[in-house]
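Components:
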Amino acid sequence: MGAGHAHKLYRHGHSPVHALPPHTKLAAVFAFVLVVVSTPREAMWAFAVHAGLLAVVAYTARVPAGFLLKRLLIEVPFVAFAVLLPFVAEGERVDVLGLSLSVNGLWGAWNVLAKGTLGVAASVLLASTTELRELLLGLQRLKLPPLLVQIASFMVRYGDVITGEMRRMRIARESRGFEARGLKHWGVLAKSAGALFIRSYERGERVHLAMVSRGYAGSMPVIDEVTASRAQWSYALTLPCAALAVCLLGWML
Amino acid sequence: MHAPDGFINAPVSAAAGLVAVGAVAVSLRGARRELDERTAPLAGLVAAFIFAVQMLNFPVAAGTSGHLLGGALAAILVGPYTGVLCVSVVLLMQAVLFADGGLTALGVNITDMAIVTTVVAYALFRTLVTVLPRTRRSVTVASFIAALVSVPASALVFTLLYAIGGTADVSLGKVVTAMVGVHVLIGIGEAVITALTVGAVIAVRPDLVHGARGLRQRLKLRVNGELVDAPETGPEPVPVTARGQRRFWITGLAASLVLAGFVSFYASADPDGLEKVATDHGIDEKAREHAIADSPLADYGVEDVDDARLSGGLAGVIGVGVTVVAGTGVFWVVRRRRTGEEADVTSPSGTSV
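Structure:
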């Protein structure tokens, strides 16, 4: 995949974070999220420090705050759930601005919001500083089964093709005067979905034949093995280690 | 429905992660049986299809619209193993690329959205197809019911995980009512779309629908004015020997039980506590009483660490139990279907993951 095929979540750059090997970044993000999840929710300051750590990473990676915040919108459904929590949860209640809220519910809402947001922010930073191909190489390096990595790589490689096909089918429908307005149009849409499945499956068969004719025998050749030096590992793992220190402090204080 | 980080506590997430890893490993083997060496490109393209079709909006009314979840559709169109793989890969990519669903919640998400929907849908679908008359219409009907049930089933499993390891303190009754209520509605939509889509594929390429493979009409020849069955020419799909499957099955079961047992052993300082927690969680009134008590389940107090660990072990055992029950259902149905056509038994092709 050349330059034109970078996914739109990726921000091209040359920062130290961009330059890190992908598997170190994946490991670091996963460890960081793990540490965040196991931080006690009563230690509110700890989450502020976690957020500060992520802000430092974002600054180092030169990812603008606006970009990061816009991508955080994916969380909105769970924010709605979190807002509901204080009203429906059990336990002793407190009065805030005339509303009777559950203390446990407030803690639960805070817990979901803080940890969810930090997790999403960490994933967004990973996706915006790592190319798609690199991510897959990183997953392979982290000992994900090769078959699974291949399936994932075919999915991302042809994801845009299939989505484009769906878009063309929509344009074809609309240019013939079709507009989906209600339940009675589901049949047409489902037929489109069925046609899309057949086209995807047949494309898969063609891709397989093309691969076989080029010598595919069950595994993809690894051309560029990614490696990480000790310095790169320690640089990447600074983030989870710092977070771990904060987490431990949170437990002790 | 993608759970974010911190929604389910760490031990239960880890247990769900183990279940997910086991199921994906089994599916990787199974998918090779379904698709042989074409697995990578075909499963990849089907995953891309699931990913794309989730973006297809079905208008409901007054500006609202729904979309397909795809677990049942994948299971019926390409088979349960490939279905689990495709939906899992879609979830993995959504978590890593789009930050949709937390990384630590990936196990939970894969368990309830990829494994439960696919396995429940396929088991139900297979049962219905064997019971109903062998026509195309019954395939459509079966896929409707399979998809209809799969969505609330997934919601129930999510609620179960939430009951064991939820970090918020909502009474179980409320969660069950809300989750199942909403997801029955979603399930109806899912069912209609799935049935219509399966119907559309069957009308054009019935050979592509994995669930409709048994429906192929035998070729008839007219010999001297009488219809006779044509002799079988094409190679039969190689059936896997029952013994090989059974050995694999027993190994998997033993491994998961050992894992779950290890987790619960590690977790339980006091064996009686496990039963206590089980009853606490099983009964709604008790759960409510528990919530009113001063030390809530989801708190991170010293006693509650114990509690959380216990729940982890419990989740492992329950996870294995659910998987075993669901898996046995599928296995039983598949074997029953195969006994009819199992003329000659050849050894399984030696695939390794």
